[in-house]
Design brief:
Blueprint lengths: L8 H14 L8 E6 L2 E8 L2 H13 L5 E8 L9 H13 L9 E6 L2 E8 L2 H11 L7 E4 L2 E2 L6 H14 L8 E6 L2 E8 L2 H12 L6 E8 L4
Parallel strand pairs: 2-3, 5-6, 5-7, 9-10
Antiparallel strand pairs: 1-2, 4-5, 8-9
């Protein structure tokens, strides 16, 4: 059995900086890193929303990181600046060309490069996929997802069973480590996981279940469990 040795904040900081340097999307010199008891704070100015998301994900990938505070600011370079009208057209095209989302059911508003998604979709995964479809577009400074879920009727017992079956199939759950509660389509997941990758996989599995209108995760990341 492998025993993990708890990292110091200075070790975590060094690893986060190395991960930022390794990531091809991020320019590590744009991102400042501070660590306090395993909580990483990212600061600085990045040239795209995609870089902000990539920096956040890079920090989460580092073992020993419990939480990430994202204080990064997106300031587009002149090359990537677009009018809100241009961004709105690009967003609509991206939604129309994405087979995973019902574009006709989604409304968008663009203000100073920040895209607000509205409307109603059938599943939580469609809500998630719509956001993923536009977050890397040139000119986008941020995304606010206000879409609501109008799921098909299915009992809470069925939803819970479908989610638990998916977690078991994907080997993402150990007995008594992850708890799933479902009420009126609202899913709550709690427990302890070893990494943010495991947390994201569990969150994704829950969001794909039919009848889910929202997912609240209260999982704790503890690589030393």
């Amino acid at each position: 059995m492998t025993v993990l040795v708890k990292k110091t904040d200075s070790q975590i900081k060094a690893d986060v900086l190395a991960e930022l340097k390794w990531d091809p999307i991020v320019t590590e010199t744009e991102v400042g890193v501070q660590v306090d008891r395993g909580v990483v704070t990212l600061s600085g100015i990045v040239s795209s929303y995609a870089k902000r998301l990539a920096a956040r994900a890079a920090a989460h990938r580092v073992a020993g990181v419990f939480d990430v505070a994202d204080d990064l600011v997106v300031k587009l370079s002149h090359t990537w600046e677009r009018t809100d009208a241009d961004v709105a057209k690009a967003v609509r095209n991206a939604l129309n060309w994405n087979t995973l989302v019902p574009a006709q059911s989604i409304t968008t508003t663009v203000s100073n490069g920040v895209v607000t998604l509205g409307g109603a979709v059938d599943t939580w995964s469609q809500r998630f996929d719509a956001e993923r479809a536009i977050e890397h577009l040139i000119g986008v400074r941020g995304v606010l997802n206000h879409m609501v879920i109008s799921p098909k009727a299915i009992s809470s017992v069925q939803v819970k069973r479908l989610i638990e079956d998916a977690l078991d199939r994907q080997a993402q759950r150990e007995a008594n480590r992850i708890q799933v509660l479902v009420e009126d389509g609202k899913v709550s997941i709690s427990g302890v996981v070893r990494s943010w990758g495991e947390r994201n996989a569990i969150y994704r599995a829950a969001s794909l279940a039919p009848g889910v209108c929202s997912v609240v995760e209260r999982m704790t990341v503890d690589p030393y469990m």
